[in-house]
Design a protein that fits this description.
70% of the residues lie in helices and 0% in strands. By secondary structure, the protein is an all-alpha fold.
Length: 82
């Protein structure tokens, strides 16, 4: 079986769909890495000697981790949804 996707990239809606299809593997990898982020952060905060770490530090670290993963996978959200 074969499938052919045809996009008219001069049309802005088709171009957006083309970019989304082209980025699907990168997005899947980013999502997989985001799911692994909890383990990374568990280790980071488990061995932290800073008693002042609170839930907001964890939220900030998680958000920072997501931003890094998206950057590493060249995922530009505005390009995909705007």
């Amino acid at each position: 079986m074969k499938a052919h996707l045809i996009f008219d990239i001069s049309d802005s809606d088709d171009k957006k769909e083309y970019i989304r299809c082209n980025k699907s593997f990168d997005m899947a990898m980013a999502l997989w890495n985001i799911l692994q982020l909890k383990n990374k952060l568990d280790k980071r905060f488990e061995h932290s000697n800073n008693a002042n770490n609170d839930v907001f530090d964890g939220i900030e670290a998680f958000a920072e981790g997501i931003r890094e993963i998206l950057d590493d996978n060249n995922i530009i959200i505005d390009e995909l949804i705007s």
